[in-house]
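Hi Y.,

Following your request, here is the sequence exactly as I used it, all 405 residues.
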Amino acid sequence: MPNLAAVRMAFRAIASNRLRSLLTVLGVVIGVAAVISLTSLGQATTSSVESSVEGLGSNLLVVSPGASTAGGFIPPSQAPITLADEVSLASAVPAAKAMAPVISQAGTFVYGTNSTSVPIEGTTPAVQQIRSLTLAEGSFYTAADEASGAPVVVLGAQAAADLFGSEDPPGAVGSQVQVNGLPFTVIGVLAALGQSGATNQDNTAFMPITTVIAQLAGTDTLSSIYVSARSTADMNLTTAEIDAALTAILQEPAGSQPDFTVTSQTQVLSTLSSVTGTLTTFLAAIAGISLLVGGIGIMNIMLVSVTERTREIGVRKAVGARRADILSQFVLEAVMLSLAGGLLGVAVGTAITLFGGRALSLSARPDSGADLLALGFSAAVGIVFGAYPALRAARLMPMQALRYE
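Below is the corresponding structure, written out as tokens. Let me know if you'd prefer a different format.
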């Protein structure tokens, strides 16, 4: 344990070359700040993705045309899934609580002088329950609207803001908009949902599926089917029932690869969490390299310091300083430099985390455990990279050191 005199001597040695010490510390500051900020922002991103996926709806399954492979989806080779197939499927899957067919369309929405592109989902009213959609104003369309093919639309929060501005209230409900040149009445605006991966859930529009078939798509070929299982425990059973029923409905050959894919919310969440976790680890590892570079900078400066203070080392040894005293003195200086860099790095990393989280709309908070780990690692960097210069100083012979010019 270094005594107070050794600490004071280390402070004087560091302060005697302030600019050099500052530049040496800077490498450690950058390394620690990068590790802390990237780790915290990565964890916040993972949490945001998980929340967005969970917000799609409870116990959600999505049936998509085409087989799933490691490289993506293979388009269906047989007949596509139609609205009639979904009706047959709904009666053949007793484990499903609700089911909603979806036809996706691209839409150009115009209101007055405002125009915006909004993805359209033509589906049934059951989607509101399956996707846990809540309304900021107005109402969702009903079974009667679906039966009559009513030209009505429910807008996402972003789509409504783009069309009607940010007035309070926006006055969207009851207004008539042009969708691909056809008139539609806005009957509701959804509460904000946020991002789900790369998808903005607020830039969307829902219409009765019959309306989309008759006026926009011209076909009843489905883009997907939303299915809500009765409980989390029934997810596997529901998936198995969908596989068996849809294989029979599509009359696929026995033993062939299914011409459709059933994806559970849990699978999507697991995949996204794995990807974001891997990216966070990778970025933190890259940031750790800059911390090692900072350690090399400390070693370089300490070697220069040993060379500059050779005569001082000789004098101290001549008046009785032991090898262990010289060794501990230079290690102490290296540790003090790296710890100073670590403390500054924690402050900078915390600031980047807070401001970066606010800029990216993430609930990013510094992790005290990561801060302590970064400080401990920075101290270890000082010990490891300060050891060799300290050993060189401790091994100098007194007479050779005194003769050094």
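The longest strand covers residues 96-111.

Thanks again,
Q.
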